[in-house]
Amino acid sequence: MTESAKRLPAEWEPQAAILVAWPHTGTDWAERLESVESTYSALIAGITRFEPALVLVADAEVRNRANQLLRQQGIDTDRVRYLQVPYDDTWLRDSGPITLADGHRFTLNDFRFTGWGGKFEASLDDRIVGELVDRRLFAESTHRHIDWALEGGAIESDGRGSILTTWKCLHLRHPDQSREQIDAVLRDTLAGRRVLWLDHGYLEGDDTDAHIDTLARFAPDDAIVFQACDDPADKHHEELGRMRAELEALRTPEGKPYRLHALPWPKPIIDEGRRLAASYANYLIVNGAVLVPAYGDEADHEAARIIGLAHPGREVVQIPCRPLIWQNGSLHCVTMQLPEGVLA
Predict the structure, then answer these.
(1) Strand order across the beta sheet in which 336-339 lies
(2) What domains, with CATH codes, occur in the chain?
(3) Is the pTM above the cut of 0.70?
(4) What is the per-residue pLDDT across 125-170, written as a single tens digit (0 to 9) for each?
(5) 3-state secondary structure 55-84
(6) Which of 305, 198, 203 is nearest to 261 (CA)?
């Protein structure tokens, strides 16, 4: 595979499957397992309407539990493939493979996963990509282990060589490296032509140190969907306003401004005195559809409408994600798409 032919596909390009990991009592979900299982059931129901789901399970008991719940929801389990793999938690956006494509050949980028800068135990999650490779899950591909910390939620690709990310996250992962050094690593490992940096934007309660997939997302035809805050009294208002100004200043490879789609701001969700990181930008694109977080907020439907406008021709499916944000992530964070052709 030549370096020049590789690229990181955009999420809206054809996919082979979506990878998820089923929550169980050995994960941090144990305290609220039943409610989060209901979200996973809805999520997998949404995925399997459009493409297969690859579901990691820790053991046979977890597999049987997942299969039982999915069948109770009327889900076509013929579209579900279970893989028994050990894992610490279920955030596969950050621990799963970041796949580069070159025609029918692939590179499975296996970055070091540190539990978001050492916040949580991550030794099992850091081995997930290798475990999947050992199980011969993938077709003609190269397993590229990269001893450099990067999570999939920290980057966005337009499929044309532009990588969108945030300085806060990458700087905290690599405090001894300059922006120029980090930029060079991203371009090398992700086959990028350029890196677009955001210096502003955050969500209270976010463990990821401002992952881009909670803030701003590339969309087809030179568009960006982003989380806005229209409440001047909210502590996010100024910072997300500065982020919007940064997005307005970005240019496409052809030198044109991006078409921007601002998402509505949900009301604060407080749980046990803690504000949860609810973002509509954390949606998942699948073949023929876009799965959109819903939080039981009056802004849910407007967010779904705007995301649908940014992704024309795709059905919009709302997934109840309030249980997910208890652990400070949402729909996109617990999934990883696998590009068409990569599976054996």
Answers:
(1) 80-84, 53-57, 15-21, 336-339
(2) 3-339 (3.75.10.10)
(3) yes
(4) 999 999 999 999 999 899 999 999 999 999 999 999 999 999 999 9
(5) EEECCHHHHHHHHHHHHHCCCCHHHEEEEE
(6) 305
